[in-house]
Amino acid sequence: MSLIKEKDKKYIANTFNRYNVEFLRGKGAFLYGKDGKEYIDMVAGVAVSLLGYNDESINAAIIKQTARYTHLSNWFYSDAQVNLAEMLVKLNGWGKVFYVNSGAEATEVAIKIARKWGMLHKKGAFEIISMKNSFHGRTINALSATGQEKFHKYLNPKAPGYKHAVFNDIKDIEKLVTSKTAAVLIEPVQCEGGVHVAEKKYMKALAALCRRKNILLIADEIQTGLGRTGKFFAYMHYGIRPDIVVAAKGLGGGLPLSCVIGGEKALSVYSVGDHGTTMGGNPVACAAGLAAIKKVSSPKMMKEISKKGGYLAGRLACLHSDRVKEVRGLGLIVGVEFDTDIGAEVTKKSLERGLIINCPKPNVIRLVPPLVINKNQMDRAVLILKKVLDGIN
Ligand SMILES: *Cc1c(COP(=O)(O)O)cnc(C)c1O
After folding, report:
1. pTM above the 0.90 mark?
2. Backbone phi, then psi, for 53, in 5-degree steps?
């Protein structure tokens, strides 16, 4: 066993199943292993590294900000925070930004806003309806909102006030709505849930239902946001407007940063002291995020993302493997469903051949590559997958 593996085992809590590979550095879509091999990362460090590894503009922004200060308390104005917020609000078209540090934390903030809004404007409505098979993060409330039993096993008693509706089924959610419903929380694409895309008709009906019943609509865009689906936020594909958008993952250009973007209706209830954070909106993370988002948000880049996503999905569908049941996704979120539970085996064997993918469900693999991925790199990934699939009986 190598020294790092020994020390990891000895000093780090055993909550992650680590793969048997050590990386020395990265560049673009590639990671370079201690074993001398080149690995193509088709999950971008779980949808974080929008521009891939070691991007020069992000590095320069980090160095520039670091030379000024790496942290200021939130008692003081921060130009890095303001510059990123301005960009986000312009790209979103509405709202104001509240920064925190992680996806789960931002989800909590969105829920807190909804609860206060319900208290003040809807006679104490507090219930949050989220979707079955959803994923919203690992804190107790975010997990209670998460609609997957496997996460609730040791959570008891679960945080109260959460209900789960069948995704893409408007009749089911209609049955769950009561006068106590404060908000609906939904991912436009369920990524951790195995890559399921919300249908257009459904999202429109859901937005209309929320309007009719005076319910806040919260879009969890932690994985779908920041251009990944070919629009800056995935909700924009549906011609709807949520009241709150939650963003994280790539928001800090690879550094920890998340935010809630709230419209007037929701955020008007939030005032000084309602939420606080020591590290949220860290200036280095904001500067890095701005550099990343400047690049990905150009109209040309956004168009390319749609095209690349279509190309990747098309190539995967053309594998014509008996094992592939369905290829689905939106933009550069692509899921491949197999006929049986071979996802973990495919993931492991792909890694051995220099391809990093991920398996959110036993029969599904997920590809969320860096947004700067090119055709050659996608071809290479698909070829490796083909070889892997050919080798599995
Ligand atoms: C990753 C993710 C989260 C959790 O984010 P963390 O930063 O790990 O807390 C929540 N919701 C969605 C949709 C995600 O993809």
Report:
1. yes
2. -90, 150
Distance (Å) from CA 368 to ligand 1 centroid: 14
**How many residues are there in the chain?**
393
Whether ligand 1 lies within 6 angstroms of the CB of 234 is answered as no
Residue 372: band (very low, low, confident or very high) from pLDDT cuts 50, 70, 90: very high
Supply the residue whose CA is at minimum distance from atom 10 of ligand 1: 136
Beta strands in the chain (DSSP E): 23-27, 30-33, 38-41, 96-100, 127-131, 162-165, 181-186, 189-190, 196-197, 216-220, 244-247, 258-262, 324-330, 333-338, 355-356, 358-361, 364-367
Cβ partners under 8 Å of residue 224, min gap 6: 187, 188, 189, 191, 233, 234, 330, 333
- For tokens 């609509």, name the residue: 217
Query: What confidence tens digit (pLDDT) does each residue in 327-369 have?
Result: 999 999 999 999 999 999 999 999 999 999 999 999 999 999 9
Spell out the residues 6+ positions from residue 74 whose beta carbon is closer than 8 angstroms to its own.
276, 277, 278, 280, 281
Query: What does the block give as tokens for 204?
Result: 């429109």
